[in-house]
Amino acid sequence: MSQYAPDDRVMVSPRYMAGAGDRIADVIGPLIHLFGWHTQHDAATGHVTIDSPDGSVFCDFDPLHPLGRWWTIAHHEPYWQMQFSRQAPMEAIAAVTQALPQLLGDTRHAEHIPITDMPLDRLATLNDWSVEDGLLTSPDWYCRLLHTPDEEITWRAEHALFEKQPLATFTRDAPESLVRNFFAHLATPIAVERAFADVPLSTRYEHSKLITPIRGATISPHVDHALAQLARHRRR
């Protein structure tokens, strides 16, 4: 029996095991409220579509997608597409969507929305991921980012617990800066907040995950989680 109730708020790491979470406002809110992107929302299904002011980029959120591909982001010319599954953390997806206006030349708020220029292999090393022949692999070997430059899908983020559903795919011509932003927010050891009910069942029973409570944190939820991470590392 779990020590947590379904509505308990918890901190979870690693991020790629935390599930999507409920921070959809971070993914689409800045596009709508800061940059004036056009939006349509079907309240009955939760389906949201967003188009850039110049019509070159659209974002589609479909929580009822039969294959669990919740997010699709596409550019019309040149054509490229990104898709994110229902298991991809929204913090990493938000790092992609919030950077889109800058790619289209809208630099408003750029000082608050960073686009990392650090190479992927350097990002991997900083977060203790291994790097070998176009493959970046997490320390626990559950998650990887695969680069296949000769294929239509040139980048693919995969998780061993969700073998039939990649966390993310990026087609040829997708800006590598967006891949870097996604990966930086996927691979970081900094924990994310979730309702316990939203943590995937498969994650709850895996030894590599760490879940700590928000209620009753002695210092702060993030600090308490970081201290628990440190204590676990010392025991290994």
From TrEMBL:
Domain DUF317: 52-100, 137-189
Pfam families: SPDY
Protein name in the entry: DUF317 domain-containing protein
Source organism per UniProt: Streptomyces lunalinharesii
